[in-house]
Design brief:
Distance between the termini: 38 Å
Helix content: 10-25%
Structural class: alpha+beta
Number of helices: 2
Radius of gyration: 14 Å
Order of helices and strands: EEHEEEEH
Strand order of the largest sheet: 2-1-3-4-5-6
Oligomer: single chain
Shape: globular
């Protein structure tokens, strides 16, 4: 019996609602994955923000097997939070990740 091989993908969640399912989008096209890699490379550090707990809260990206990308990213109000191997880091969204993700929805 042949095993199916899952293509690398990312789940992008637009964090809009509290208590309802948020809109989701799957990124799996190699060009999209490469674009994301470019948008999160060599960014200047940022201070940890105070993001709201309710209402619109940007975008959450979960890695579902895409190599060379962190486990999870979140972007809101010009700051990117990267979670990788248990470490949280914050960077300035200098290259427009938040706008690019917004254009996907």
């Amino acid at each position: 019996m042949a095993q199916s091989i899952k293509a690398p993908a990312l789940e992008v969640i637009h964090l809009l609602y509290s208590g309802r399912r948020n809109p989701r989008y799957s990124l799996s096209h190699p060009a999209d994955l490469e674009q994301l890699r470019r948008l999160v490379s060599d960014l200047p550090p940022a201070a940890a923000p105070r993001w709201p707990a309710l209402g619109e809260r940007g975008f959450l990206i979960r890695n579902l097997g895409a190599p060379e990308l962190p486990e999870e990213l979140r972007v809101f109000r010009g700051v990117i939070r990267i979670l990788d191997r248990g470490s949280l880091r914050y960077y300035q969204d200098r290259d427009g990740l938040e706008g690019w993700l917004g254009s996907l929805f």
